[in-house]
Amino acid sequence: MKILMVSAEVVPFAKTGGLADAVSALAIVLNKLGHDVRIVMPRYYKIDRSKLTPLEGPMGVPAGYVEAWTEVYTTIMPGTKNLPVYFIDHEQCFGRDGIYGTPTDTDFQDNPYRFSVLCHGAFQLCRKLDWYPDIVHAHDWSAALAPVLLKFVERYNGFDKTASVFTIHNLGYQGVYGKHNYPATGLDWNFFYAAGFEDWDRINFLKAGLTSANMLTTVSPTYAREIQTPMAGFRMDALLRHRSGDLVGILNGVDTEIWNPSKDKYLAENYSVGKLAGKAKDKAALQERMGLEVNPDIPLFGVVTRLADQKGVAEMFAPTYGSMYRICTEMKVQVVVLGAGEKWCEDELRTLESKLPNFKAYIGYDESLSHQIEAGCDFFLMPSRYEPCGLNQMYSLLYGTLPIVHRTGGLADTVENYNEATGDGTGFMFDELTPQSVFDTVGWAVYAWYNKPEHIKAMQKRAMKKDFSWESSAEKYLEVYKAALSRI
Ligand code: ADP
């Protein structure tokens, strides 16, 4: 199949979250299976032009009222022989820091126009290459205009055999802007309602994508069900119920070249199911690096997260009612946190660290520490309010670090709850997110650590044997692509 991925972020070129990992990993596996996959994304300021190859001639992109003149650059995706990535280069739109915004200006006000240039550009690029894909696969709201353009415009301009698939990586981000931005789409006002942009008299890019794509996917089966309910549907639940016959949940995989304790280059010592001894050295190294007491007998809990409400950070860290202070004072544990994000939360982490000798926080983004926490901890705390798929709990399982999670979305699909009677399970779960349930479930894990060490060992081994490869997910996407083609 010929597949064009459209995404605002793609590893290793630009990333804010799991979306960027998923797009490139899926593309790479499909490429290995022999499909003609190509990726199109913006060339942000930080992506060095001198390392890319320019395509000949400028490319006109009919976003907004007038044509935008862009350049296109290309390179081959690292780790592949023939997976091209195309970069749309437009100084006015993408020649700045940040993908959607900057720390001080979190949402660029011209995002409707910027991502309209990306999506229109995707089709212009195909014309320029004289390459017409079977599937346009758009990811998240910033690429949602692509299925809309296909259905209402491009279908009649040479893309009559192309079908679209739209993947929701996180329904919480929808791209909602004032209606005055609508002309940025380059579409006639007829389509304001017809294509599903209208959202309480504003424009909603995600909603238009959900209305227009031939098939919809999201990144775990449980999340696919949850988003059809008012609780987790972010106001899109009715539309998603309406389209439930076209909506499929496919779990993301893990890049086991990077996330593999037996060859992880960031670890003090590599280890595997058969050779677990190395994990103890990684624990000691982490305790040492973070300035904690080096002691194998104290259970060590890790957190690696964006400090955002979605991740349950209030239930853990909020002043007065968050559970962390009680966890660290009432239980014999150690906790390390790696995260960046909301300022109140960063401040609170510093406050907790100043009060608690067994609590350490690193505020910022640190690749090596994220690996060392996965390897060195005994437990990984991930109480997300909602979690479309989640990567960190899967990394934790593969590293034998038992996850403590809220039973939601991808967390529910990947972690099996501990059964105290039999010792079965791969982690610890609670059903309702409250500070008390976080406290209680950490307490449950601590109880098992001190009283049922044989269960903990068996759970670690069971977790490390889990298969989260992209291959099986890619097969499921191919089924979705076929279903999309049958719906043209
Ligand atoms: P989301 O995409 O919602 O942020 P995921 O669990 O799907 O959550 O993916 C998060 C990714 O970002 C993981 O690869 C995780 O290790 C990484 N990550 C998050 N915060 C940090 C940080 N402060 N330092 C290093 N890596 C981080």
TrEMBL record:
SUPFAM superfamilies: UDP-Glycosyltransferase/glycogen phosphorylase
Ranges for domain Glycosyl transferase family: 296-441
Gene Ontology terms describing biological process: glycogen biosynthetic process
Keywords: Glycogen biosynthesis, Glycosyltransferase, Transferase
Family annotation (InterPro entries): Glyco_trans_1 (IPR001296), GS/SS (IPR011835), Starch_synth_cat_dom (IPR013534)
Catalytic activity: [(1->4)-alpha-D-glucosyl](n) + ADP-alpha-D-glucose = [(1->4)-alpha-D-glucosyl](n+1) + ADP + H(+)
Record-linked Gene3D superfamilies: Glycogen Phosphorylase B (3.40.50.2000)
Pathway linked to the protein: Glycan biosynthesis; glycogen biosynthesis
EC number(s) reported in the record: 2.4.1.21
A cellular component annotation (GO) from this entry: cytosol
Domain Starch synthase catalytic: 2-242
One Pfam family from the record: Glycos_transf_1
Top-rank EC class of the record's enzyme: transferase
Annotated NCBIfam families: glgA, PRK00654.1-2
PANTHER family per the UniProt record, alphabetical: ALPHA AMYLASE DOMAIN-CONTAINING PROTEIN, GRANULE-BOUND STARCH SYNTHASE 1, CHLOROPLASTIC/AMYLOPLASTIC
UniProt record similarity statement: Belongs to the glycosyltransferase 1 family. Bacterial/plant glycogen synthase subfamily.
Protein name according to UniProt: Glycogen synthase
Source organism: Candidatus Treponema excrementipullorum
Native organism taxonomy: Bacteria, Pseudomonadati, Spirochaetota, Spirochaetia, Spirochaetales
Gene: glgA
